[in-house]
Amino acid sequence: MSITQVRAACPHDCPDTCALLVTVEDGVATEVKGDPEHPTTQGVLCTKVSRYIERTYHPDRILHPLRRVGKKGEGKFERISWDEALNEIAARLHNIAARDPQGILPYSYCGTMGLVQGETMSSRFFNKLGASLLERTICATAGATGYKYTVGGSMGTDLEHFQDAKLILIWGGNPIASNLHFWTRAQEAKRRGAKLVAIDPYRSLTAEKCHQHIALLPGTDAALALGMMHVLIAEDLLDHDYIARHTLGFEQLKERAAEWTPERTAATCGITVDEVLNLAREYGETARRHEPVAIRMNYGLQRVRGGGMAVRSIACLPALIGAWRHAAGGVQLSTSGSFPSNKVKLYRADLLAGRTPRTINMVTIGDDLLREAAPDFGPKVEAVIVYNSNPVAVAPDSSKVQQGFAREDLFTVVLEHFATDTVDYADIVLPATTQLEHVDAHWAYGHLYMMANNAAIAPMGEAKSNAEIFRLLAQRMGYDDPCFHESDEELAAQAFDKTHPRAVHFDWESLKRRGWQKLNMPDAPFAEGGFPTPSGKCEFYSSQMAADGLDPLPTWIPPYESAASNPALAEKYPLAMISPPARNFLNSTFVNVQSLRATEGEPHLDIHPGDAAARGIDHGDMVRIFNDRGSFTAKARVTDKARAGLVVGLSIWWKKLASDGKNANEVTSQRLTDMGRAPTFYDLLVQVEKASP
Ligand SMILES: Nc1nc2c(c(=O)[nH]1)N[C@H]1C(S)=C(S)[C@@H](COP(=O)(O)OP(=O)(O)OC[C@H]3O[C@@H](n4cnc5c(=O)[nH]c(N)nc54)[C@H](O)[C@@H]3O)O[C@H]1N2
Ligand SMILES: Nc1nc2c(c(=O)[nH]1)N[C@H]1C(S)=C(S)[C@@H](COP(=O)(O)OP(=O)(O)OC[C@H]3O[C@@H](n4cnc5c(=O)[nH]c(N)nc54)[C@H](O)[C@@H]3O)O[C@H]1N2
Ligand code: SF4
Ligand SMILES: [Mo]
């Protein structure tokens, strides 16, 4: 028997991008574990990916191409050959492209975060075709935009220093579920005497284990940050030297913050004046003692109308108290901007050859699939090629999305591992390889290591990698540019820009052997300023924002839907709802892995005892959650984990595995954030009632 161990990387949309060791016995993968030597993985994986073998060898894997035989949505298919599948797709795409290639739309996100199996061959393919461009905004662009205006780019505190912080604010994130290796560091900090504070409307698994939990109303984070600034300034808990040398616009910020008294802040956020005062004082006083103070800001607070401004406002705080002076101080939202990935070479925008196709926002796919040709829109969408995403389950305002994909005149191709909710609407389904079956190179958004993924096993059945599928499609379309012949290995070897000082040491052959390699980065990136903003300073005042039509100073933008901002709507739909990630799923991935679904049970709705009693709802009752956009059912959990006025439905369930064939996105809206054109998944009002049996 031959036993080998293969170095791999976790492909999932998770900040941790773990280093994996895959045990292979006679060509069969038998175990996936964390690399004990990798400094952030430290030999530990989350429960989900510990089950990667179960997912890879799952009996429901799609293992050969399929053609639809039933009605759209029914999920009935017949087996066809790769030749038939590729020929049919090429014929349909040629036909549409002859009228206008913008009628063709790619739809993809981060099913895999790999640079190769993400957007390399696919991007080249769609650029050459002149297809519509997709704005990949479904997750992080509100915060990334707000952070960029303020700090200059997606960079911040290095994960590997958080254990040395003395105060950590975990703001809008639930790392026990979604950023496990940060939580390890936070716990080590706790053992060394640090205080952990969770800022979250919901008593999440993480909030439960922090020293303090501040349960503010959803969408009020910018107000809390402004209130903290008010106190820091009023009580002179500032680092004047850092402010003078490394920030821009302090005088204007001071005027703005003056408006945010602790009383106004507390009323806006639905918390106490003491909570505001004590948080600000602890934040300022810890820094005053020259101790590191860090913020781990995450995505929960961005999924509302003012999501960009919320991130921007929080991102101003470390500069006010000079927290950036310490390696363990500052703030981390995402480290993605640290990676010089080689997008010019990988994506090949030059293949557009001067054309500028229209752009479609993936958040508004529901409306856009239902639109007719129009001067302000362009041609009707006639074909969608979906890969690395499951839009029918994850995109907002789901009944519209479903209606769009149900269009008889829409040609849909889905590259997948499993028969997801989206696959049910496909005309052609193509079997894709999993991370164990293909090669890839990875960046990360929670640490600073370039990562390699070696193929551990041969492709299952007739599955092919995404890059290979687009390579074959390019051939069928008659594209002869040499870039369409590059192998997955050749693509991986170009992953990072070796001319960039942070990646000069990148070498694919050695990365493959070692598995990982840290970027060249200073320990405390902004200790001496040097922010990558236009002014080189942390911009409290941003002229760029003014030029972009935004308030140049931090400000609170109320949610579209809340009791305070829309009282008329709140009469009808009095409860705010959020649907953050369930611990055992990764977005909608893993929902079909039996052992993980069994742990989550079934779709739940957490509701405060007061709100439940007012509606005659008991623990365990089936409830209907609804608003003008739609409804879904879930089993009520009556618990004060959800603050009064808020209901929480951990997500993202496959619709077809829920009792009513629906999930939380029935009630979410397609409205966009203040900046970054991102979704507002947690900005909505609903009513809840006992479901009729
Ligand atoms: N297990 C697991 N891990 C995941 C994912 C998953 O689905 N499952 N998804 C991955 C992806 S794609 C992403 S983007 C990240 C997301 O990572 P995080 O943003 O850390 O997501 P969550 O862990 O749900 O934490 C969000 C928290 O924000 C809170 N929240 C909601 N609204 C507000 C608000 O207005 N203000 C504040 N302060 N808090 C609010 C929620 O109650 C929730 O506890 O996680 C990644 N990791
Ligand atoms: N209500 C609500 N909705 C949300 C969110 C929320 O918190 N609440 N979160 C939002 C966020 S943050 C995000 S990032 C999006 C995520 O939305 P998506 O990016 O669509 O993520 P997944 O649902 O995990 O779907 C990814 C799919 O890619 C497939 N896949 C994985 N690897 C490969 C591969 O190598 N090749 C191919 N062809 N397929 C592959 C998987 O099988 C899976 O079905 O959802 C958003 N939707
Ligand atoms: S999902 Fe996240 S925590 Fe789990 S193995 Fe992958 S990178 Fe690590
Ligand atoms: Mo995400």
TrEMBL record:
Under the heading CDD domains, the entry gives:
MopB_3, MopB_CT_3
Q: Which UniProt keywords apply?
A: Iron, Iron-sulfur, Metal-binding, Molybdenum, Oxidoreductase
Has the keyword Metal-binding been applied to this entry? yes
Record-linked InterPro entries: Asp_de-COase-like_dom_sf (IPR009010), MoPterin_dinucl-bd_dom (IPR006657), Mopterin_OxRdtase (IPR006656), Mopterin_OxRdtase_4Fe-4S_dom (IPR006963), Mopterin_OxRdtase_prok_CS (IPR006655), Prok_Mopterin_Oxidored (IPR050612), YoaE_C (IPR037920)
Q: Does the keyword Oxidoreductase apply?
A: yes
Alphabetized PROSITE patterns for the sequence: 4FE4S_MOW_BIS_MGD, MOLYBDOPTERIN_PROK_3
Q: What is this protein called?
A: Molybdopterin oxidoreductase family protein
Protein source organism: Massilia terrae
Q: What is the lineage of its organism?
A: Bacteria, Pseudomonadati, Pseudomonadota, Betaproteobacteria, Burkholderiales
